[in-house]
Amino acid sequence: MRRYPPTGRVPAPRGVITFIIRRLIATVILLVIVSTITFAIFFLLPRLAGETPYDLAARYVGRNPIPSQIHAMEVRLGLNEPIQVQLGHFLKAIVFGETYSNGTSKVYCAPPCLGYSWRNQQPVWPLLVSDIPVTASLAIGAALLWVVGGVAIGVLSALRRGSIFDRGAMALALAGVSLPIFFTGQVALLLFSFKWQIFNVTYVGITQNPLQWARNLVLPWITLAFLYSALYARLTRAGMLETMNEDYIRTARAKGLPERIVVFKHGLRAALTPILTIFGMDLGLLLGGAVLTENTFSLHGLGWFTIQAIDNSDLPEIMGVVLLASFFIVVANMLVDILYAAIDPRVRLA
Amino acid sequence: MIGRRGAGRPRAGGDGQVAGATQLSGAMLEVRDLRVHFPTDDGLVKAVDGLSFSLDRGKTLGVVGESGSGKSVTSLAIMGLHQHTRAEISGQVWLDGEELVTATPERVRSLRGSKMAMIFQDPLSALHPYFSVGSQISEAFLIHNKVSRKAAKQHAVDMLGRVGIPQPATRFEDYPHQFSGGMRQRAMIAMALCCDPELLIADEPTTALDVTVQAQILDLISDLQREFGSAVIIITHDLGVVADLSDDILVMYSGRVAEYGTAEDIFWRPGHPYSWGLLNSMPRIDEARAERLVPIKGSPPSLINVPPGCPFHPRCDFASLTDGRSATEVPLLREIEPGHMLACHLTSAQRARLRPERVTAAAGGRGEEDGS
Which of A12, A257, A269 lies nearest to residue B143, judging by beta carbons? Predict the structure, then answer.
């Protein structure tokens, strides 16, 4: 048999390790940029809008302050210093910690110091940390539900396109994306908590009583997952319909693969990649606080914390929660990028 | 280069053909009165409408026609790759004594990839982007053979080597995007041949490739055919592609057979005005530029509203010579000389007169028709 000379060879992909390291560096840079922008929103924008350091300092002192108290606060917070120096202090505090003085005593704020809440007389970070388990329990539990449920419904709908199941599921999905959580949540509470008293929504630590933890979170999980699985079912259905028309699916069938392998190995894998991107975003966003769900079910997580901080105009707290939320999104995106490279070999070249 | 007469056994198809319950000939593949219709909102699309042909072991059939003539639909129907919810398939497809149209989908699936295999037009989109080339080949082998993963991998590496991919053991791990176009098609061929199929269908295997690679791929297919002894169907819109490779040629128009015979018949004694048109639109290097390419006027008919009579008559220069029969009466496929079938109302005298002046390309027009 004849052999032919090789035609052009594309260079081998760089290792996955290199790819991950590059992603990590990019993530750190992104976090610095996010911190800077957050800082600018809270300290630079008010100045541009005409507020003086004196006005800013006035927010941190008690009611009916005398001007000398405000001036003292201005100096203590460094608000009279040039903006870039303040940014330096702000970033330095995150990395190395900071000591705050409230006039009578000094408080050390350990890194990552996201500021000091003068209203609560506490550093912001421990306050945030104590609320993370609630939000994380809610977000991760719901995410598992909606990914499994939404994708399964989407795949079935795509495979039985036009069937009664497909029509029913898509109608329900439309309802799911249209109904706001504060409505579905209230209905769920009314029926299952007040009327039949099956589920009681109070947060119990997972380490204290895992069973009670899960039982008490069932309603918020289902409410939150209903909204997202509706979205994911539609996305999965559209993705599967498109993928199953690809040439490589025809090739898989031409090889004589059983339909099960064609659908789940060759079809679903390609259809899932765009869903992974959106999943990373959604989960990252929710980890920073499921504001509506937490408030509907009175769960004291980061979403609840955010509303309280805004209600109280507690600037350091707001800044802290914004930074933490953006941290979750940035990290979730990084993980998605890495997973993407593991799934799609073409990405590793980019 | 050109096959012996009677390599295949052309059978009259089309209307009123008696459908037997068993395979009549001993051919590797026999298609009898195949019809593939797609019900759509606009009407019934008759993509293939009464197609019959047969193919012997080790022989090559070239299926030629324009886009939309039903070539690919035919091949997908033989492979059982049409969705039963969307396509209405009738007729018979006999593969080595086994009827496929009425067979269970599971049975046809087990034959796909093992007894019959297919190569597609665009190897980049036909290979899964997420799996390595090697794993896609060994997957095809594993499904039909009870062997270990290691043995399947070794077989895939061997196959890659046999289709001319250098360093096959290294390239096994590569992904389709790391292959060049020609190498991807080689990999597709390796995948198709990995279970030593008795029938290989190549659907426009060179259309998406660089011209410099086209000849290599065609050579490879014919080399491997000799080596594996498979029957091969090459589907193309380009007569030049099948000229050297085919024993028989089937010219399709509007889902039906226009002309069917040995390669010699089609190139030397073409009978159908559509075949003349195809020959004229074949680029040739040895002719003056001015008279080189003569396109067939018009475009293929809608498969929903096929013109009455001969489907080609609106585009045919000689439809007026048949006393109006071309526009009213569907021409039956009949044998004009042994093994040479034609569906045209022109008389043999008319054809003998018209062909020399119409067919300037190829060697057409030089042979004498013996009339029947």
Answer: A257
For an interface test with A, the pick among B175, B184, B199, B226 (most A C-beta atoms closer than 10 Å) comes out as B175
- pLDDT at residue B203, as a whole number: 92
State the fold for domain A126-349: MetI-like fold (1.10.3720)
Going along chain B from its start, the domains and CATH numbers come out as: 8-115+198-363 (3.40.50.300), 123-196 (no CATH)
Residue-range domain boundaries for chain A: 16-123, 126-349
At A99-155, the pLDDT tens digits run 877 667 788 888 888 888 877 888 899 999 999 999 999 999 999 999 999 999 999
Q: Inter-chain contact B191–A256, Cβ cutoff 8 Å? A: no
Q: What is the 3-state secondary structure (H, E, C) of A163-209?
A: CHHHHHHHHHHHHHHHCCHHHHHHHHHHHHHHHCCCCCCCCCCCCCC
Q: Is A230 in contact with A150 (CB distance < 8 Å)?
A: yes
Contact A251 B128 (CB under 8 A): yes
pTM: 0.81
Flag whether residue A9 sits within 8 Å of chain B, measured between CB atoms.
yes
| Interface ipTM above 0.95 | no
Residue among A4, A5, A255 minimizing CB distance to B112: A255
User: Do the Cβ atoms of B70 and B31 come closer than 8 Å?
Assistant: no
CA distance B152 to chain A (A): 14
